[in-house]
Amino acid sequence: MTDRPADAATPRLPAQGRGGDDLLARALGRARWTIFWERLWPALASLATVIGLFLAVSWLGLWLWLPAIGRAIGLGVFFLLTAAAFAP
Q1: How far is CA 7 from the centre of its chain?
Q2: pTM of the model
Q3: pLDDT score, position 59
């Protein structure tokens, strides 16, 4: 006979079960943020490209060289490019 109670005969792992759940929850959270970023960055990249192209055309002074109708058409084209950047 031993001096230990009957419950002490079976070993328990109290911290490992909860620690594994915490690790899994953190890993799932990181995976969700990674998937979110992977879906978001192409849209941001295309929008940044359109904005950069508009700034390049503006800094070149193209708007000053164009007549009024050319400016309107150019702004319309950039508006359509921006709308296309937001489309999936």
Answers
A1: 50
A2: 0.61
A3: 95
